[in-house]
Every structure is written in structure tokens, then in C-alpha cells.
Design a protein that fits this description.
With 78 residues, the chain is mainly alpha-helical. The protein is built from three helices and two strands, in the order ααββα. It has a two-stranded antiparallel sheet with strand order 1-2. β1 and β2 form a beta hairpin. The chain is globular, with a radius of gyration of 15 Å. The mean pLDDT is 88.
């Protein structure tokens, strides 16, 4: 039988580490790290406020073309 217990500490820590790496990569425009956080598939979808990406290749192309902007944001709760 599978354990579906929410908030398993090891899983929470793994997700937190990925999230924190993504946030740093977003600010630094580190496309390799950003790409590593998404499934490399034509079925990957990224929804954002100003644009949506459908498929890994489109998401990657957007990241490469995006200007380095100050996207630093305040995280109030994880």
C-alpha cells in the first residue's frame, strides 16, 4: 500500500530546494537551471501573468530571449 501522507519532510525539503534554486536562477537568468526545473516535453505548460508557454521548446526559447530584469520578489509563505 502506498503512503499518501501529505508534507513528508524529505519531499517538502526537496521541493523547497528546487523552488529556491528556481528563484535564484530567475533573478540571475540562469537558463540551464530554469530548464532543469521543467519537464522536457512538448506537453509541458507554463502559465504566467504576461505570457504562456506551451511545450518545453517554447518555454526555453522565451527564457533565452527574455531580457535580464529585476524579477526579485518577496516570498511570504511556502
Amino acid at each position: 500500500m502506498k503512503d499518501y501522507t501529505p508534507n513528508i519532510p524529505e519531499v517538502v525539503e526537496e521541493v523547497r530546494q528546487k523552488f529556491e534554486a528556481y528563484e535564484v536562477a530567475l533573478v540571475e537568468k540562469n537558463v540551464d537551471v530554469l530548464d532543469d526545473t521543467f519537464w522536457n516535453s512538448p506537453f509541458t505548460v507554463r502559465l504566467a501573468m504576461g505570457e504562456h508557454g506551451y511545450g518545453f521548446d517554447a518555454i526555453h526559447a522565451f527564457r533565452v530571449a527574455r531580457k535580464a530584469l529585476n524579477v526579485l520578489r518577496e516570498i511570504v509563505q511556502l
